Amino acid sequence: MGNSFGHLFRITTWGESHGGGVGVVVDGCPPRLALTEADIQPDLDRRRPGQSRIVTPRKESDTIQILSGTFRGKTLGTPICLWVRNEDARPEAYEEMASKFRPSHADFTYHAKYGIRNWEGGGRASARETVGRVAAGAIARKILRERFGIEILACVTQIQNLKTPVDPETVRFRDIESNLVRCPSQEMASKLIRLIERTRRAGDSLGGIVTGIARGVPPGWGEPVFDRLEADLAKAMLSLPAAKGFDIGSGFAGITMTGRQHNDLFRARRGKVITITNRSGGIQGGISNGQTIYFQVAFKPVATVMHEQQTVDDRYRNTTLKGRGRHDPCVLPRAVPIVEAMTALVLVDHALRHKAQCQ
Amino acid sequence: MGNSFGHLFRITTWGESHGGGVGVVVDGCPPRLALTEADIQPDLDRRRPGQSRIVTPRKESDTIQILSGTFRGKTLGTPICLWVRNEDARPEAYEEMASKFRPSHADFTYHAKYGIRNWEGGGRASARETVGRVAAGAIARKILRERFGIEILACVTQIQNLKTPVDPETVRFRDIESNLVRCPSQEMASKLIRLIERTRRAGDSLGGIVTGIARGVPPGWGEPVFDRLEADLAKAMLSLPAAKGFDIGSGFAGITMTGRQHNDLFRARRGKVITITNRSGGIQGGISNGQTIYFQVAFKPVATVMHEQQTVDDRYRNTTLKGRGRHDPCVLPRAVPIVEAMTALVLVDHALRHKAQCQ
Amino acid sequence: MGNSFGHLFRITTWGESHGGGVGVVVDGCPPRLALTEADIQPDLDRRRPGQSRIVTPRKESDTIQILSGTFRGKTLGTPICLWVRNEDARPEAYEEMASKFRPSHADFTYHAKYGIRNWEGGGRASARETVGRVAAGAIARKILRERFGIEILACVTQIQNLKTPVDPETVRFRDIESNLVRCPSQEMASKLIRLIERTRRAGDSLGGIVTGIARGVPPGWGEPVFDRLEADLAKAMLSLPAAKGFDIGSGFAGITMTGRQHNDLFRARRGKVITITNRSGGIQGGISNGQTIYFQVAFKPVATVMHEQQTVDDRYRNTTLKGRGRHDPCVLPRAVPIVEAMTALVLVDHALRHKAQCQ
Amino acid sequence: MGNSFGHLFRITTWGESHGGGVGVVVDGCPPRLALTEADIQPDLDRRRPGQSRIVTPRKESDTIQILSGTFRGKTLGTPICLWVRNEDARPEAYEEMASKFRPSHADFTYHAKYGIRNWEGGGRASARETVGRVAAGAIARKILRERFGIEILACVTQIQNLKTPVDPETVRFRDIESNLVRCPSQEMASKLIRLIERTRRAGDSLGGIVTGIARGVPPGWGEPVFDRLEADLAKAMLSLPAAKGFDIGSGFAGITMTGRQHNDLFRARRGKVITITNRSGGIQGGISNGQTIYFQVAFKPVATVMHEQQTVDDRYRNTTLKGRGRHDPCVLPRAVPIVEAMTALVLVDHALRHKAQCQ
């Protein structure tokens, strides 16, 4: 249970890091949308691990296949099944994990819940599961872009203690993508790359913040009182591996202001209602107000470190375990397309829900 | 749409701040649970506004009525409809709001979405809607307490710049409830009360942090990959009026640590698996690990201030509006039972889901 | 669980035959629909028992109250809670049922499932639960009529062995409502009334068929492969107390034809596609084709008879039980507005779903 | 939308008759169930068309592949993705259907709904979609058999005017499977085979009835008031291609009885409650009563006939169309494993729901 997301644009992801592959079924995609693998592959390539000098290489091409739901390059309105075959299976690399629980990973909790787990590479709890999210998110982004003119971006704005401000109104995709860490400031990017390299050599790992942005969302999306837009964004983000926090607009920082300082005053401008400031982050009372939506997602430092650590085995005996093999000390850059995908999935679902009831 | 929460213990809240009342339908409550109004009223009384010298009085008794789902003091397993009648309706107090949008309230977005709104007191966006949540949450807490031995607590840990640490393992309900602001530190409580009084006199308002705690949750609850326990908690909390942020365990603060510092090492203790530290906040990979669950919710400063502010009216013309009438400059103390309620609702739903699939 | 119906126009009914009342919450109703109690009461009056000489009188006014979701006579887009207070509670009339299971009623199965039941008048399994359905259905019908020009009808076409044909294209509401049994043929109506009176005097009961009709449904509604329009109608009808069968179009009778005889041939007429015959009953492949939708619902004879019958008690000992008190030997006429309501609820939900994805 | 079925054991089917294949994702399967392709393939083989002399051969092996959700032969509790590759794609056979709507098929309605359709072999409306249902149903049956001792059967009991009685209590799987038409009476089977052969030679087609049976379901399954067990069965059956009717227990035939004749009297037997007759079909008030569940599904005659028929094209002009290629004049025998699958899917979902709330 729990592997579906969305109400009207509903995705169900499936697959483990080792096995027949990973994928997603999208139910509810509007018909007659032009769609081929070429619309999806670029986002998957951005998500793919092992592509730069700051991480250990991984030999998977992550090639997407559309198994259903399109006909001659257009969506049919029927379920779209997307599949990426697993290629890089090396079960022998994981033998020790068959019986030992990696600290701060999901090995123990999956064992406790299901009484069984695919210990080859993390199974379902592996970041590889997000392949299906990114693939479905690429479709969602295409709809939002083509039918609503909405632009979705994400970028790395903090790693450990190094942080950079970002202006949600002006930051550009090409600036973000122009460096290995997907940081909008090129100067900060250089620092972050050095920090990651240093940490990698130390066999240690890092966490940080990804900022998500959606520009052009019209007023009116969001379904109070539970399916508030920010509530669904929060759920989407906290459903990501290693995510530990979410805030929107002024967020945690806003609590030091008083109401007079914090309120976003309305003004009329060219027949539209705008706000002078945007501490609300584009959402008020759970519904978009037409301003730019922006939020932060906190990711904890990667749990896999190249050092021996205390832990227990599946017979509940004390032991130790040392990370080995690939080491990806900071997943933040790769989390960027995943945050974008989840943002798009939330928004397109709410676009359809709003249309159904209110238009 | 969007007024239901939960899958198996499913609540649907209804009602506006003005009208026939507010309430909730609970579908999926286990049968044969002893339940009368007396089990629910205390939590509603804790949520009720206007009860202390730090807020403007409000004359509503918020008396709960069970309309269905019980028989001779026991639940039937059928839907439980709970109702609190509205008493304090003073529409005339709101006439100006009929055409003007209060800044940082949901007036404009409801207008943009629905093309109509109940402008008497905020309608559905009013904090009064949470009556239904607290009432349903009282049932959820009872189940968790009686059938699983789980204790749920919340407390105010920060208002504006004044913050207090809290130990999730040891903080006690009676300490929290022993002061007007529901702060576990009595010393800090005095400071917070003075801050609130001062802010109230200034006609201004405050935000802060409520910390939520669940002790005794067994390992195994949570439904990856989307209905992770922390994802559902995040959604629950961000669905609250004025909530702008959520983090769990080490949260936003944890990102300055490295993986070696941050990892929670497992140890075996008396046939159980425990962690030496609890930076995970009791959840790993979306599933409870048996440690105490704790998280923070950031609430922005209250939008209603007793000052004239720029805004627009419903014909999209610039104007001004001044808050009047009741003034509740800090909702944090009242948010405590609401956070508890939402926590209980998430947990009891996951208890049933886990039982269905895995037990 | 199981007390909600619909996805986008979603209703949740609550209430037992004895207790605080019965009602429904409607979530997803479009905003700005004119709606007062006067739009709902007439259908409830048609459903109300005890109104004619063919049944035992029952003293309930079934007065509907709108508790939420409207403002000055218009819907807000927020949940609409509708409530009918119970008036005719006479628990003493049911004492014997506290321990004995009435044959072919739900007493035993509720006991087996929940381990507790409200034995006063059938509790949740009572036909009184349908009050909420009819109330919500009245809103659905109003939307379908005003926004789509759809007319929904139902009528009694068979009781025991007496059956009358009905032409779904031409039958009129006023003809159906012009007799006590809601039979479109006045001649047959007289026979049915005599049959019911005779059966009532014999302390026995009757079953029969209600035919449901929807005229004016546009092509394109229905969500294959599971939420086919006929599948949702079948579920809606089989969710009614005492319903034992459903067929659509040619239904069970159609199986004696060959494909050549049975196929509905398409023809173009004034720029539209019509079918020469309508054995499909207006639905093909789960989607409406623009022709009139018609179907049959079989209701078993009423389980309550005024004779002593063998049964068991809740300690699983053999005993006997004799029906007493009110006797309503044939619920078919009252089932008519309920079938209409469920039809409307299915259709309005599909109207919204179709709009969301395909328009 | 509409491609998922079930709440806790939830399936989502995907795929068209032509394209990358057909499949299903099962979310909610209990962990640690032994499961390999060998558990699923036999039911798929029973569903596969073109296997006997009474139908046109079709060259598809329908080989199932488990893509996810198992590890070393056991289920993980994670989503199980099952896939059958399409092999027999001959788009050229369908060129004429690109622009013409086959009478009583779903061509027109899919066109009307989605504005696009995969006209190669019926696309999503093809019976091939049921591959995913049968595959998921095989898992459901295994759970029901191994964990609850429940046996599910279906058989052909009527084709056109030829009908045979069946005793739900005693009919055996091997008797049903011992003839080409899956009829429990061998004598009737011979007649049916001759009827089908004669009809096939005439280029015409047949409909009939499949009876579904579930033995050993314990009392207590079913979720009133909407998710009654019979309501979910009705929906499941009416979601099948060509299904036009459903009745349970005495069904449509029962309406000619009076209540005294029809009521199932309870008796205590060895500490259990049984009924002397079983006109209820094993379900009372929406909840199983421990007796055998049995029901009928009416299938209309196959729409494809080998004769020229009037129709329209996608520019809404009158034209004609003649069926060609494969001719399968009676799908009833192949519908048997599909009815079994849907029955199993309904029951296992209710088993989990009952456990969640009431156990």
Structural commentary:
Four copies of one chain form a homotetramer. By secondary structure, chain A is an alpha+beta fold. Chain A has one domain (4-358): Chorismate synthase AroC (Chorismate synthase, AroC fold), CATH 3.60.150. In chain A, 28% of the residues lie in helices and 22% in strands. The first copy, chain A, has helices spanning 37-47, 107-114, 130-148, 173-177, 186-201, 229-238, 259-262, 332-358, and strands at 4-5, 10-15, 22-27, 64-66, 70-71, 74-75, 80-84, 151-159, 162-163, 208-215, 243-248, 266-269, 272-275, 283-284, 287-288, 293-299, 308-312, 318-322. Chain A has a five-stranded antiparallel sheet with strand order 1-2-3-7-4, with helices on one face. The first copy, chain A, has a five-stranded antiparallel sheet with strand order 9-8-10-16-11. In chain A, strands 5-6 form a two-stranded antiparallel ribbon. The first copy, chain A, starts with a strand and ends with a helix. Chains in contact: A-B, A-C, A-D, B-C, B-D, C-D. Strand 11 (243-248) of chain A pairs antiparallel with strand 11 (243-248) of chain B, so a sheet runs across the interface.
Structure described in brief:
With 359 residues, chain A is an alpha+beta fold. In chain A, 28% of the residues lie in helices and 22% in strands.
